[in-house]
Structure prediction request, 236 residues.
Amino acid sequence: MSALAAVLFDMDGTLVDTEVLWWRTTEEIAGGLGHRLTDADAPEVVGRAVEDTAAHLVRVSGGGDPAEVAAALTESFFREVEAGAPMRPGAQRLLTALEAEGVPFALVSASPRVVVDSVVGGSLAHVPFAFTLSADDTARTKPHPDPYRAAAGRLGLAPGACVAVEDSPDGAASAEAAGCAVLVVPSLLAVPTSPPRTFAASLEDVGVARLRSCLTAAGRPPTQAGRPRMSKMPSA
Prediction:
């Protein structure tokens, strides 16, 4: 079985139950633009960067400035998150198991830094992440591969030595494009299957051995995993 060098966790909908908060935020902002949010909007809202969602709302409503809509989304979502974002079932047990086995893990999110810092300072304050990456920390965020490539690089690892844990189509696409093995635990949207992706119904069904098996299932040989080393980049 392939060695597990590191685990890279998505945040919203994966470790914390914030997707419902994000949907509620988007619904509110969309209503202010005269657009009623429906399931048809979900692919442009769930798991997407703030700027992508703002552009979608401006496009479907026919009004508004994308930058102003993005700022309103961020501010409203931040208020929701500050009020509390509970952890997803099974998340704490899995994080504790990884820590016990000495497997490093990091947070790789498409949310703005202000939101990431709010969640990491609140619901996830006790979690010893190696570092956190937000949408503000790479030139492009999900679904592009940049975030996961950057995260693996900060650990001194090839992406193929890492397992990314995701809940959305864009997040899974980002991790797969970067070269990671991917464990998908869907939340609000169905995620397409592909060879590098393993699926679980809940993090309650996932242990360290299951994460290791994701590397094997994705065809990652043991030689791709090495001892992680932190780069000298500034911590986020």
Remarks:
- Residues 66-82 form the longest helix (17 residues).
- The first strand starts at residue 6 and ends at 9.
